[in-house]
Design brief:
421 residues; Aldehyde Dehydrogenase, Chain A, domain 1; Aldehyde Dehydrogenase, Chain A, domain 2; 7-stranded parallel sheet; 4-stranded parallel sheet; 41% helix; globular
Amino acid sequence: MNDMTQTPEMLIAMLGARARKAAAILAQATDEQKAQALKLAAQALRDAAPAIAAANARDMENAAANGLSPAMLDRLRLDAGRIAATADGVEAVATLPNPLGAIIDSSERPNGLVLQRVRVPLGVIGIIYESRPNVTADAAALCLRAGNAVILRGGSEAVESNRAIHAAMLSGIVAAGLPADVVQIVPTTDRAAVGALLKASEFVDLIIPRGGKSLVARVQEEARVPVLAHLDGINHSYVHAAADPDMACALVVNAKLRRTGVCGATETVLIDRNFASAGRLVQALLDAKCAVRGDGDVQALDTRATPAADDDWDTEYLDAIVSVRMVDGPEDAIAHIAAHGSHHTDAIITEDAATAEQFLNAVDSAIVMWNASTQFADGGEFGLGAEIGISTGRLHARGPVALEGLTTYKWLVRGTGQTRP
């Protein structure tokens, strides 16, 4: 822990200065060295699994005593399978193609100058996140492989888990000959440290928030550093009139209930008024123990459905609850998504290719799907390895942010003595 006489600003300045130095060293490291560091870190996570599980048990006990919701407890929980998957994810990042040094494009000017845009690290990244301790490992792995130093600030509910994961990974990173300061964790739960990190533009090049609306809103309001926003997932599955009934039921139930606490979960189901099996679809959700909040037409399909309030259409439940509305065709569905969605992930279920293309082109979300569960909104499922989050903004990176999203570029200009007239 930091010295109690140290202000949050002093603490962040110290971490930032160390991160800057570490980033400069990391920039000179070979890709093989970075990959080896992650392989060693992954093995260290496996070796430390009992200690990580014990730390997580303490967090779970405290979180339950503090009244954390079931969905948030699910995000916090680390069982043996999840720890193993976290280690596998870190190792998978080590095997991904190296984005650094890649030539984005190249051209030669009439005067003979040769121009190239080449991928380079961002520098120092600050990541502020809640609940999910696996983010500690994912973020560290991705930032390091992309050549960036990272300062992590997890939620107080996962403090013990985060420290245990960080300690394990650090042992592997140092064993590979890289400086320990390439991955630092803010050693205090004082919320003032978050504010200091958001204003540390001298040391931090990008802030990435991962958490609920209140966290992201605070980051966007206070930050003096560029922000890569990861907003809530108010995701929709639209069942078109030409949807296959069996497929529609399977996809909607999976999209909502496979894991209710992930940001890719469907929160609103839109059913075309001309879809003949609407009652069967609502029944499938209810029979799967999902609470359905619907409009009058939906309630008429099954008496177990309860009335939807106005704010249900704007709610990320992260629970076994779904809002369901009948719509008058694809234009109505697209309009509803535009009014209530969060630009995260939205899907259409239909056998009509023309309508599917209309939906794919018209819906302004980071991820738009056709005949697939919104639960596939995940960097690993996209073949990107572990992800840092799903960006719902429009600048720099959009959708699952992995290695490439954690880089920028610089121009390389090669001449033969040209002077400008």
